[in-house]
Amino acid sequence: MSAYSIIFAGFGGQGVLFSGKIVAYIGLFLGKEVSWLPSYGPEMRGGTANCSVRIDDNPIGSPLVAEPDVLVAMNGPSFDKFIDSVKPGGQVVIDSAMVLRENSRDDVDIYDIPAVKLAKEEGLEGMANIIMLGKMLREAPVAALETVEKALRKCIPPVKAHLLEPNMRAIRLGMSL
Description:
Layout: E1 3-11, H1 16-29, E2 33-40, E3 48-56, E4 70-73, H2 76-82, E5 91-95, E6 109-113, H3 115-121, H4 128-139, H5 145-155, H6 164-176
Parallel strand pairs: 1-4, 4-5, 5-6
Antiparallel strand pairs: 1-3, 2-3
């Protein structure tokens, strides 16, 4: 891996900032240069939320991601907003339970994951973002599973340590798709 530019986008409360934070820590644990730039509307839950993550072997001049290599879109408005900015040859992971639009681009790889539905079926409610992160990590192999677990341990606060195992299950589920 030399460089990745990733946008995670959805509604507030879907965990897109948390997903981006996990990837940022993965980059740090790999000894890379990292930027994580959250952006969210004033509404908090239910408003728009996205974050840009850059991981590079070289110093990062700007945290802004204008042309992502990877887009993870958790809802239709986020898909609409960012799909045209993905670099040709990039990957797009969408929650097909929430994004009901057709993609007109044939120069990117699209992965439709019914993440909200899968999370409910597998007893992982609230972890659709982590299932999508798992799929993203399969298609854009940023790091080995051990590094992902290390990043999760860093991001999950001690009071919620019991959520590490379900999060790892969600990651593995996403990677299996």
